[in-house]
Amino acid sequence: MFEVESYSGKSEKDYEMVIKQLKALLDGETNQIANLSNASALLNQFLSDVNWVGFYLYEEESDQLVLGPFQGLPACVRIPNGRGVCGTALKEGKTMRVENVHEFPGHIACDAASQSEIVVPIRTTDKIIGVLDIDSPTVGRFDEIDEKYLEKFIATLEEFI
Q1: For residue 90, which of 29, 84, 108, 129 sits 20 to 30 Å off, Cα-Cα?
Q2: Total number of domains in the chain
Q3: Global confidence as pTM
Q4: How far apart are CA 22 and CA 37, in angstroms?
Q5: b/e for 98-112, b at 16 or more Cβ within 10 A?
Q6: Is pLDDT of 22 > 90?
Q7: Does residue 7 belong to any structural domain of this protein?
Q8: CATH, residue 33
């Protein structure tokens, strides 16, 4: 059985350890849903002061993000490309770190408790296939360290999906 160590989720050393845990957790598994499920559970356990951790997967036919594996309260099922923080990260192809979601134009409120958010695109060889979305009930929860290491976390995850 795989055991997740508990960390504060704020130091670079802690992030390096959780990335190592991700590699160990996903080693040998190729199923995308299983790997995304375990990745969301790992981050939910690892990060402090978050209320939602999960993935939205890009559906080309509808040009929308569709809810994938997550930890937290029920969430919006579909997000159009370019709408909200997740849709903007998809459209712009870059990480979005939002200090106060109520100040983000077009923010989609799935959970009224969410105050800040970070969204990291997930890529395959040449296209974005989804996003990691993390919400916090605290304004300004996510900083440069979170952004840097969540991008590294996703780069590691991309090797297994």
Answers
A1: 29
A2: 1
A3: 0.92
A4: 11
A5: beebeebeebeebbe
A6: yes
A7: no
A8: 3.30.450.40
Cβ-in-10-Å burial (0-12, 13-18, 19+) of 30 comes to: exposed
| Residue pointed to by tokens 């296939």 | 129
| Mean pLDDT of the region 78-90 | 96
Query: DSSP readout, 35-94?
Result: HHHHHHHHHHHH-SS-SEEEEEEEETTTTEEEEEEEEES---SEEETTSHHHHHHHHHTS
Give the up-direction half-sphere exposure of residue 23: CA atoms within 13 A in the CB hemisphere. Answer: 8
1 part of a folded domain: no
Assign 31 to helix, strand or coil. coil
Cβ–Cβ under 8 Å, residues 99 and 116: yes
Residue 154 belongs to a domain: yes
Mean pLDDT of 37-60: 96
Q: How is 95-161 classified by DSSP, letter by letter?
A: -EEES-GGGSTT---SSTT--EEEEEEEE-SSSEEEEEEEEESSTT---HHHHHHHHHHHHHHHTT-
Percent of the chain with pLDDT over 70: 94
Q: Is 93 inside a domain boundary?
A: yes
Query: pLDDT tens digits for 89-136?
Result: 999 999 999 999 999 987 787 777 899 999 999 999 889 999 999 999
